[in-house]
Amino acid sequence: MKFVYSDGGRSKYYKAKNVGDCVCRAIANATGEDYKKLYDELNDRCKNTRLPKKRRTKSSSARSGVYKKTFKKMLEEYGWKWTPTMLVGKGCKVHLNEYELPGGTLIVEVSKHMTCVKDGVLYDTYDCSRDGSRCVYGYWTKK
Questions:
Q1: In terms of residue numbers, what domain contains 43?
Q2: Among 48, 102, 126, 140, who pairs with 107 as Cys (CB 3.0-4.6 Å)?
Q3: Which ranges of the chain would DSSP assign to H, the alpha helix?
């Protein structure tokens, strides 16, 4: 899979390179929206997301990681549709490579990470494909 380095526009606003902002980056790369606008919106949503008691001690933020409940609601409101590719007990059926993913713009969820794939090209700050062997949990497509 071809890889293109893209921080989603983070470098226009922040100097840090090693941060856990993959949700914000993936959405910015897929939508073309301004990184800072998405960053601020995600942080506002993180503050207003009610979490189960066992998770209330851990904070969620656009910089250090966003809980699935938060970004799922946001993407649905933006008009994106979830397609699961891995079901419980079924094993990995789709991998992060251009031959197993559909064309178009995708926001892809893999283990502990989210990234953007546009027409078989990976846009991220590093090549997270593991040479095309990384299992895809599912992906978001624009309705």
A1: 2-142
A2: 140
A3: 22-31, 35-48, 68-77
